[in-house]
Automatic annotation (TrEMBL):
One of its GO terms (molecular function) is metal ion binding. The lineage of its organism: Bacteria, Bacillati, Bacillota, Bacilli, Bacillales. The keyword Zinc-finger does not apply. Gene3D superfamilies: dinb family like domain. PANTHER family: DAMAGE-INDUCIBLE PROTEIN DINB, SLR1116 PROTEIN. InterPro entries: DinB, DinB/YfiT-like. A divalent metal cation binds at H48, H130, H134. Pfam families: DinB. Keywords: Metal-binding. This is Damage-inducible protein DinB.
Length: 157
């Protein structure tokens, strides 16, 4: 058993539960920007999460040139699901590339002269915990808009 693939499958199932929650919302609420969340919307947070995977795993770790994921990339939950299907493919490519070599470090530049040596394990951990951080914000925004969320803790198989 590959523990990272199994772990990501739990994350993907939990994301699907969150998508179903978002489908219960009106499309207007899905894209509604709330001042109380710095002008973010649920859609914008989904875009931010997917783009984080793209930047950290695709561009920085795998050295791929990938188009930026922007707010204009998706306006519906179904369009966002398609973006995350591509994100899933990217993550599996990353897991295959670094399988058994999680201590492998990469020199990552952040612009303005800042850089760091970052391991493949750190990159994986950062991206998946980042998604769960924003999952909590999405649920909180949904509550503020009047939608009662399901239990979105990590879903077991």
């Amino acid at each position: 058993m590959d523990v990272f693939i199994s772990q990501y499958e739990w994350i993907r199932r939990t994301r699907e539960l969150l998508f179903r929650y978002c489908e219960a919302m009106s499309q207007e609420d899905y894209v509604k920007e709330l001042e109380s969340f710095g002008g973010d919307s649920i859609r914008n947070l989904h875009v931010h999460v997917a783009d984080c995977y793209r930047v950290w795993l695709g561009s920085r770790a795998l050295g791929r040139s990938l188009p930026r994921i922007t707010q204009d990339s998706a306006n519906t939950v179904e369009e966002m699901r398609e973006i995350f299907r591509k994100t899933d493919d990217l993550l599996h490519e990353f897991l295959e590339e670094f399988k058994g070599d999680w201590d492998h470090t990469m020199h990552i530049s952040f612009g303005e002269g800042d850089s760091a040596e970052i391991s493949a394990l750190w990159l994986y951990t950062h991206t998946v915990t980042h998604e769960f951080h924003h999952k909590g914000q999405i649920v909180k925004i949904g509550r503020q808009l009047g939608y009662i969320p399901p239990d979105t803790d990590l879903i077991e198989p």
